[in-house]
Amino acid sequence: MDRASGIVGLGRGTLSLVSQLGVGRFSYCLRSDADAGASPILFGSLANVTGGKVQSTPLLQNPVARRGPYYYVNLTGITVGATDLPVAFGFTASGAGGVIVDSGTTFTYLADAGYAMVRQAFLSQMADVQTVSGAPYDFDLCFAAVAAGADVPVPRLVLRFAGGAEYAVPRRSYFDAVDERGSVACLLVLPTRGVSVIGNVMQMDLHVFYDLDGGAFSFAPADCATL
């Protein structure tokens, strides 16, 4: 927020910019390089995502808080490396749980049980890399001597959604160096006891499209400068 003048609310709430404009669709593309310029956001008829790499999944309503401000999606599975994890992120009877997409949250948070499976999968598949405390960096799982872009065995991370959509997350969006020397790298995913959140770092260099009228969430890799 050091260079920001404020925050634009894009949720379903009545006070958000989306609601006040009365538009049924919007999209944005968040640049991974903050120094490259502004990230575009488009509303109404200007908002669309096209091309052969577009994937879509239904937007959900919380069964209890149907007028809530969040954009829920059905995250049906997570793959780490070649391992498909039996994770579940459904709603409870009280409306707790679920997964939201939120551009206002920096990192991605997974409910404790799902996070524990993801964490263990990375530990098992990176057993030859020394772990270090992530406390100084506010992360949970970190490794030593792993410079950004170095040739280390970092497993791939894939999010799988209802309807068959899959997001192969770019490495820099889930695992990256966190110190100036590049000597410590961390998993940019954290545990939570609340709702799971796909944050903005995991959305970078994606054209993300919310079709509120059609009830769909779509995404595709993009060069944000060309939108």
Automatic annotation (TrEMBL):
<keyword id="KW-0064">Aspartyl protease</keyword>
<dbReference type="GO" id="GO:0006508">
    <property type="term" value="P:proteolysis"/>
</dbReference>
<dbReference type="Pfam" id="PF14543">
    <property type="entry name" value="TAXi_N"/>
</dbReference>
<dbReference type="GO" id="GO:0004190">
    <property type="term" value="F:aspartic-type endopeptidase activity"/>
</dbReference>
<keyword id="KW-0325">Glycoprotein</keyword>
<dbReference type="InterPro" id="IPR033121">
    <property type="entry name" value="PEPTIDASE_A1"/>
</dbReference>
<dbReference type="InterPro" id="IPR051708">
    <property type="entry name" value="Plant_Aspart_Prot_A1"/>
</dbReference>
<keyword id="KW-0378">Hydrolase</keyword>
<dbReference type="Pfam" id="PF14541">
    <property type="entry name" value="TAXi_C"/>
</dbReference>
<dbReference type="InterPro" id="IPR001969">
    <property type="entry name" value="Aspartic_peptidase_AS"/>
</dbReference>
<dbReference type="InterPro" id="IPR034161">
    <property type="entry name" value="Pepsin-like_plant"/>
</dbReference>
<dbReference type="InterPro" id="IPR032799">
    <property type="entry name" value="TAXi_C"/>
</dbReference>
<dbReference type="InterPro" id="IPR021109">
    <property type="entry name" value="Peptidase_aspartic_dom_sf"/>
</dbReference>
<dbReference type="InterPro" id="IPR032861">
    <property type="entry name" value="TAXi_N"/>
</dbReference>
<feature type="domain" description="Peptidase A1">
    <location>
        <begin position="1"/>
        <end position="220"/>
    </location>
</feature>
<comment type="similarity">
    <text>Belongs to the peptidase A1 family.</text>
</comment>
<dbReference type="GO" id="GO:0005576">
    <property type="term" value="C:extracellular region"/>
</dbReference>
<protein>
    <recommendedName>
        <fullName>Peptidase A1 domain-containing protein</fullName>
    </recommendedName>
</protein>
<keyword id="KW-0645">Protease</keyword>
